[in-house]
Amino acid sequence: MNHFVRRNLFAFPCQAIVAGLLVLCAFAAEPAQGASSGAIKRVESGVQITTDTCVLTISPITATAFRIRCAKGPGVESPSLVLLPQTSVPAFKVSHDKTSVVLATSKMKAVFDRSSGALHYTDGSGKTFLSEAPGTRRLEPSTVQGEPTFAVEQAFDSPAGEHLFGSGEFQDGFLDIRDLPRRLTQVNTQIAIPFLLSSNGYGILWHNYGLTDLNPANERAVLTRTSTGNETTANVTTAEGARRVVRREGEFTGGLDVPSSGRYAFMLDVGQKMARRYHVEIDGKVVVDFANFWLPPTTSWFGDLTAGHHSIRVTGAQDDQPVLFFRATADRTVLRSPVADAVDYVVFGGPTADDVIATYRQITGPAPLMPLWAYGYIHCRERFHSSQEILDTAEEFRKRQLPLDLIVQDWQYWGKYGWNAMKWDEQYYPDPAGMIDRLHAMHVKLMVSVWSKIDPATDVGKQFTAKGYYIPGTQWIDFFNPAAAALYWKNFSERMLSLGIDAWWQDATEPENDDLAGRTTFAGPGGKVRDIFPLLVNKTVYEGQRKDAPTKRVFILSRCAFLGQQRYASATWSGDVGNSWETLRRQITAGLGYTASGLPYWTTDAGGFFRPGAGQYTDPEYQERFLRWFQFSTFSPLQRVHGFQTDTEPWRYGDKVEREVRSYLDLRQQLLPYIYSQAAAVSFQGSTLMRPLVMDFAHDDQALTQKYEYMFGPAFLVAPVLEAGAVRWPVYAPATPGGWYNYWTGSRVASGAADVASPLEQIPLLVRAGSIVPIGPVEQYAGEKPSSDLEIRVYPGADGDFTLYEDEGTNYNYEKGMRSTIQFHWDDARRELSVGQRSGEFSGMLQSRQFKIVAVDSSSAHPFEYEGKKVVYVVPR
């Protein structure tokens, strides 16, 4: 846990005059003016300003992160479930004059305008980077499930040219979400993270656990069903297992009127917990058309309208009750929550995107290192039906020399014992512990699906029923009750962890499809906490394993997440998505939106979850999509395949698919020294592995519009192919000193628009000049061949640095300092590679090893023995 350094809180004597401003001493109170009807009071944590609306508290958490809270009185606040306990306060000063109240740290200021009541924020040089829109702070009494609450809202100015990212994982296809309406709820394929990252170098964390509307549209067009279509049947997943369902389409019509021509923002709400199709026509023109077996209930877009009346036609499920929300676009960012205790947010001052994310992790918790093998290949399918199937599959991977690190048992292994009984049906899994031992003998790890829903008729469920530990009316465990969470972990530990299982798949942790809405939890009305359930599930499992298996690193794959969940060794995936090209495109924007929200580990079902049935094994069109998706997965934080009612093993698709999959499995293994070193940067520096271009090229306007390109660590620019039949692919290479290299050919690529060769076997992949990339051997599993021999590949054209990180890979000794780093520096003018003295040590560390320096513009390689001492090599052209 990070602790903040305590400094002198009271830097100036009472009523000292500094730069013409009256500086307040501790706990001094003076009347405020204008929008402030009461007192200004310095408190230990910051300053309180009594306004006509509320008591406004400004609290510095770090020198570049301020928490703002507008509440009806300074009453006792419940401890945050998101923010770490603050053990110290950074040094700050409070001053005021007739026009403003200022709280300043060494790097940032919050300025309260006493006339308008609005806040704005400046950096250390005095430049304003964020401003509240005057008159938009709202705190209005309301009710939720019969209990008193507040409806809150805050708007911020968003200047022209700004780009905004984040808010979690969404399926609407947008990466830049400036002014885009979104409803932040937790459902299958959608993850609500109320965090925004700006190209202007700031971030906002909206500190609310319930539904939040981002940039809401208040005008609405209610649509009427005018016809129904033909029935169709589909096999889908539900919280009760796979089901064959009958669906019928419906057509809905209506209209809207706008007073002026211009650009408008739209949000469609289908009126059900989940959608199946978004098809919207305005004046006969299709503006949205996207379908899947499961979709979030809302989707959003922008469009141009002329003044006057417009006809609307929506096609969806016949039971939909669609409403189309709309408004003119605006230069504002608005956050609104219908259930809240206060207007409550944290503003981060950057100045870079990496600084924002690092500070976010500092105050919500660092992301611990996953086991080394988690960064290798994860093989999954829906589903394995017996222990013998699992063992046979693992053996076949080894026989074919296809790298494999982790194999996954999906749901329903509990069989006759009932849903999530935490017991294996011995008819099909006669000896789970023995199966795991045999997997471990093959150096294969096992992940198992464990739900937060338990059938009350099971032995475990009866314990929860007896104690009243279910959320009433559901089979979801009430993790808001610490005693219920403790009982869940007790059974989990005794029945599952004790078998030697290596990793956990916490499925449907939303809980499934926003199921807390209208429920009552131990924490009160579900509406107050409807988005934070996944955080508590992951907390229970992480803290439980750290206690009961303290030497074993935790690895959790969760279908949902919330602010701060990275501290629980939790990764997410994008849920039960389809397999179309458009679906693949939307997974890229979904994943980049998620990592822009501060959580580093994300993946997807490569090839899509819902697949085209038995024909997929021979269909060349699907196989092309699958291979392009698998290439994208190789350059995702986790490399993983999954599929509904599918045997997903690569050899089932024929020699060509197996060959291409093998090449990317091999590449992933070779890149593990690079990936694991970047994972260490995630843990120790608050970095991000899968990086939207705002993180590296915030001042390149063209880069900020690229929603299907991203950086994978500091070296690689990844541009997945997203159309059938492509043999060349347009890539925008952002401006960077020295330009870029084509990874596959080693040829130079200038910054700017590029046309890159993209045969089926190659994902467009550029490497930034100045990069230093360690390349390891091809392994069948992570750690098979200790990295005694590493190629150190240098991409000349600019100076560069790289830190090679290593540790034992499976335990938490690194937290005690048992780890090592080696610093590499490339001096481009001198063509010198400096290999620094090794720092640190750990059990099993290689004392001597072979490094082979390869500059991609040189025809020769330079091997040498490295024994931990600094060496410098000149690399000729």
Automatic annotation (TrEMBL):
Residues 56-210 form the Glycoside hydrolase family 31 N-terminal domain. GO terms for biological process: carbohydrate metabolic process. Keywords: Glycosidase, Hydrolase, Signal. It holds the Pfam family DUF5110. Residues 1-28 form the signal peptide. GO terms for molecular function: carbohydrate binding; hydrolase activity, hydrolyzing O-glycosyl compounds. Residues 368-678 form the Glycoside hydrolase family 31 TIM barrel domain. Residues 790-856 form the DUF5110 domain. Residues 686-773 form the Glycosyl hydrolase family 31 C-terminal domain. Coiled coil: none annotated. Belongs to the glycosyl hydrolase 31 family. This is Alpha-xylosidase. It comes from Acidisarcina polymorpha. The lineage of its organism: Bacteria, Pseudomonadati, Acidobacteriota, Terriglobia, Terriglobales.
